[in-house]
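User: I'm putting together notes for a lab meeting next week and I want to include a structural view of one of the chains we've been expressing. I don't have a solved structure, so I'd like a prediction I can at least talk through. The sequence is below, exactly as it appears in our construct file.
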Amino acid sequence: LHCFLKSCSARSHCSMRSCLLVTALVSSLAGTALCFSGSTLPNQRTTSLSSSSVSVSSVVKDDDVQLELTEKGLLKRDRYVATNRFAVRAGKEAKFEARWANRQSRLATLDGFRYFHLMRRVTLNDDGSGINTYQPGEAKEEKMGNYVSFTIWERKSDFSAWRTGDAFKEAHGGTSIGAFMSTMINSALVLKGPPRPAFYDGLLMQSVPPTSIPETENGWRTNLVADGVTNLPAECFVACNQFFVPTENGPAFEKRWADRESKLAECEGFVAFGMMRRDGTAKGHGTSPMGMDEPTYMSTTIWSDRAAFESWKNGNAFRQSHGTNKDDDAAKEKKPAAPAPLWSKPPSPIFYEGTLVITKEEGP
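Assistant: Thanks for the context. Below is the predicted structure for the 364-residue chain, given as structure tokens.
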């Protein structure tokens, strides 16, 4: 940082001010990376426990937390989902995607890893073209990010082992002080603010084995053309619905979803589904308590493409799962009144294109 500021000293006042702003953002990003990972700076000495003892301890803690959830009437988690939300500057989208595509990571080789993709937020055009429009995001929407990294782990302890280990440091430029700071400065030039991590318990998970598995090498995607100029191709479509459920209504909300009939797995192009419950126990920079404007639950369905999503939305499986059947008016008349809503405000849909898909053979 000292060298970076020194190089700015001979520039104009306006340029110097920009450098100071970048420096402040770099410091914030560095804090996010270190606290998110639970790690120290590269080359800083640490005393670590053996991986086996940490693993056993983490699994026991996971089991204890699961018991606490069921005692409160909540569902046990099936998976653990780690996301990081990014507000990418306008015109920097392809460069941001290229940095992800070209990074060093061995994610797919790690214990407990199930699935990853990078999502860019889109708006659905209703002109019949089937084309999605990239959503840059307004200032008030930056909490959700216009890009989101999305990783599914078998257990929370698997995620914790990754973010405190060497694999995390390697993927985030932590192999040396110079590499780490270079990564932070480049991030400051591409992002409008520090990333905002959010973690979830994955409930009611469904998935099917993938029809094809993208090629990886040493745990990360390979044979991709990521030049920083052209956006990466969409490899899946993600439909989410955000629910704002008060804590006291959580058990009833989860039961309502657990009791409903689902035929998603029978639909063409279906990849995976999960009801994501925000993990309020997660700690670290950027994981401040949720505000009233953030969802406590989010249904997340991954489809092979938008066409598969549209086919489901316009088909019988959707109508049955949502309690509607336009072809049977008599059945509709006999149907009991809909139960009272359990949320504080109406659900809010949000859509993404997914790229850089990495998956296990058994699926998410």
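A couple of points you could mention at the meeting. Residues 1-18, 30-54 have pLDDT under 50 and may be disordered. The two ends are 41 Å apart (CA to CA).

User: Perfect, that's what I needed.
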